[in-house]
């Protein structure tokens, strides 16, 4: 019996946003430009008019600043911590001109970025959390073997009603500028992911897309064959002599399929499937899922052994996705999301990427038996997706459209930017098997009349790009008030009964959760439901009997009170009548926010773990819960 994925990808939209992750090969060099850069504030916003980009050094005063890192918490200077506006980075490096094309790539910078190379404008980019790049070859002197390169970057963290996320700047007086942000996390800024230099030939592999079209199972649900669609785009100098070879290689190094067409399909016999972890029928989340490698070789006719370009995607997973009216199916088996959402947030680094934090994050996911997370509330660094692919941890990839909490935020300008962000995110992440769904916004004012047309447009734009995934957004509106989710595939709701409402009343949770889920089901009987956030702030070490808010005891009992209501309508515990497909606590870790009377120490303390990654009592509750969910026998 052959099952197709939720949406078969037949057309790829290719836009040059820096899609392929920088990877070394026989033909490509990759050099990290991370380290200490020169840095300074530009409080007057004068740097561009004064042409700081053309100077050999940034004007003083400058300080050393690590890249990648948010700049806000690196110093003891509160002015830097709360700065709103332009900052400047600069560094020099030498390049050995051993290739005809050199590309400078920023994995992400927040928010508005302008880059100059050797005094010339190289690239501008609007938006954080996603990569951008520029071919800097035209800025290098011709006819030399080595060259000194001077890179200058200006970054502005000011948010506006048309940025994602939005914000509004209020200037109270010359010394008091306030950025109003309708979201509950700190607006960290700077070059918060790696800066990379990589080389290619004049003709090069520009883009690759691969997606499972279908899997043929036998009566015992063993995969007999799989069909994969792929497309390869060649950039740069074109020639009739150019040829391409696409090979799919298994984990032992054996070539299992190949083709010489730039857009076609593979049929793989007896495929090994990529499986999400943490289910009764799959592997534990401390073990690895199965990945293939897609190798693309560009060469001139008759010269295969002297390739022009070689690129490998080493995280190809064969799997399908399909939604019914009550189940989320991966490889035609019911999947149940159980994990914890998080922020890219840590001490000193802010949102800066760090391999130590990455490794600890996934180590704790294994300890917790978590099998999924949402990239709340923006696309994470590429390395998170690579690790999730490896261990079979499911991802709901989310855009930075958080805080659309005013009717005027649903503007034509915001919609245009929203479409840009969706395109960039899907272009970057579509080849990751771990990405099972796209979330296009978090807690918008979806009850507003303006939201209906806005989200209809976002959904219609995204579907042709979605690469086999369902689409959703995360809802804080009531079941009767929401106007946008009708255009999407699944219901994801954030609810905080006994916290933001019914404060302190743990006894009210079971009936409220049961009623909430029933109401959503009654309105949308053909859409599965996921609890995408629920949680309570907790000060570590604080206790009280009976449990009071902010104590570890309260957070522990808070979670315990929700779970029976989930189980009553679970799609895996009650496959005949269940429609509830997952639970994702908010949050995995305590994280930084703006200072306020409700955020002691400038932290949201809803973490199962502290910001230093130490468990609170509730972490053990969730661990036990997820160990139990792994034992639930899932029927086909």
Structural class: alpha+beta
User: How many E strands?
Assistant: 33
Assess the beta-strand content as a share of residues.
Answer: 25-35%
Average pLDDT value?
A: 95
| N- to C-terminal distance | 13 Å
User: How large is the count of helical segments?
Assistant: 8
> What percent of residues adopt helix (DSSP H or I)?
10-25%
Rg, alpha carbons: 25 Å
Q: Tell the overall outline.
A: globular
Q: Strand count, sense and closure of the main sheet?
A: 8 strands, parallel
Q: Could you characterize the architecture of this molecule?
A:
- Helix 4 runs parallel beside helix 5 (449-462) and helix 7 packs parallel to helix 8 (617-629).
- The chain contains 8 helices and 33 strands.
- Strand 26, helix 4 and strand 27 (435-442) form a beta-alpha-beta unit.
- The strands form 8 sheets. It has an 8-stranded parallel sheet with strand order 24-31-30-29-28-27-26-25. Strands 4-3-5-10-7-8 form a 6-stranded antiparallel sheet, with no helix packed on it.
- It is α+β, with helices and mostly antiparallel strands and 636 residues long.
- The protein is globular, with a radius of gyration of 25 Å.
- The two termini are 13 Å apart.
- The protein is 17% helix and 31% strand.
């Amino acid at each position: 019996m052959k099952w197709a994925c939720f949406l078969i990808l037949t057309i790829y939209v290719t836009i040059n946003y820096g899609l392929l992750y920088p990877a070394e090969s026989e033909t490509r060099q990759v050099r990290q430009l991370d380290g200490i850069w020169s840095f300074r504030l530009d409080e007057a916003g004068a740097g561009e008019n004064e042409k700081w980009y053309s100077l050999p050094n940034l004007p003083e005063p400058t300080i050393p600043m690590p890249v990648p890192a948010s700049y806000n918490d690196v110093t003891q200077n509160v002015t830097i911590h709360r700065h709103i506006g332009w900052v400047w980075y600069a560094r020099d490096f030498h390049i050995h001109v051993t290739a005809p094309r050199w590309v400078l790539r920023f994995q992400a910078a927040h928010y508005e970025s302008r880059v100059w190379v050797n005094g010339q404008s190289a690239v501008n980019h609007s938006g954080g959390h996603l990569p951008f790049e520029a071919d800097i070859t035209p800025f290098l002197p011709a006819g030399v073997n080595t060259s000194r390169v001077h890179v200058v970057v200006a970054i502005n963290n000011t948010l506006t009603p048309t940025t994602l996320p939005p914000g509004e700047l209020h200037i109270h007086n010359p010394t008091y500028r306030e950025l109003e942000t309708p979201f509950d996390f700190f607006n960290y800024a700077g070059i918060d992911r790696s800066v990379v230099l990589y080389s290619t030939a004049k003709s090069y592999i520009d883009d690759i897309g691969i997606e499972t079209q279908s899997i043929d199972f036998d009566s015992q649900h063993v995969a007999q064959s799989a069909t994969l669609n792929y497309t390869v785009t060649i950039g740069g100098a074109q020639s009739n002599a150019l040829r391409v070879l696409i090979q799919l290689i298994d984990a032992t190094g054996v070539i299992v399929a190949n083709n010489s067409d730039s857009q076609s399909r593979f049929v793989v016999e007896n495929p090994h499937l990529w499986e999400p972890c943490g289910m009764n029928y799959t592997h534990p989340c401390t073990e690895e899922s199965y990945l293939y490698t897609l190798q693309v070789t560009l060469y001139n006719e008759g010269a295969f052994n002297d390739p022009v370009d070689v690129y490998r995607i080493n995280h190809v997973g064969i799997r399908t996705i399909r939604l019914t009216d009550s189940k989320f199916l991966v490889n035609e088996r019911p999947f149940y999301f159980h994990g914890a959402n998080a922020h890219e947030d840590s001490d000193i680094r802010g949102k800066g990427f760090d391999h130590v934090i990455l490794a600890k994050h996934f180590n704790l996911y294994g300890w917790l038996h978590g099998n999924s997370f949402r990239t709340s509330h923006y696309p994470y660094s590429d390395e998170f997706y690579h690790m999730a692919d490896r261990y079979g941890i499911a991802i709901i990839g989310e855009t930075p459209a958080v805080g659309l909490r005013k009717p005027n935020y649903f503007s034509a300008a915001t919609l245009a930017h929203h479409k840009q962000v969706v395109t960039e995110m899907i272009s970057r992440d579509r080849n990751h098997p771990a990405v099972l769904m796209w979330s296009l916004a978090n807690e918008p004012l979806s009850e507003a009349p303006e939201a209906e047309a806005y989200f209809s447009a976002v959904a219609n734009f995204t579907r042709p790009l979605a690469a086999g995934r369902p689409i959703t957004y995360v809802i804080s509106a009531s079941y009767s008030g929401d106007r946008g989710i009708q255009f999407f595939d699944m219901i994801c709701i954030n609810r905080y009964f006994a916290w933001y409402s019914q404060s302190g009343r743990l006894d009210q949770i079971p009936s409220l959760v049961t009623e909430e889920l029933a109401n959503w089901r009654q309105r949308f009987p053909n859409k599965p439901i996921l609890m995408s956030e629920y949680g309570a702030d907790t000060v570590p070490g604080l206790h009280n009997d009976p449990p009071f808010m902010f104590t570890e005891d309260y957070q522990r009992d808070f979670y315990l009170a929700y779970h029976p209501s989930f189980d009553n309508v679970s799609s895996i515990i009650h496959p005949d009548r269940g429609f509830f497909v997952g639970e994702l606590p908010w949050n995995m870790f305590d994280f930084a926010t703006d200072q306020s009377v409700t955020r002691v120490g400038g932290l949201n303390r809803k973490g199962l773990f502290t910001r230093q990654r130490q468990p609170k009592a509730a972490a053990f509750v969730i661990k036990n819960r997820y160990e139990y969910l792994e034992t639930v026998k899932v029927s086909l």
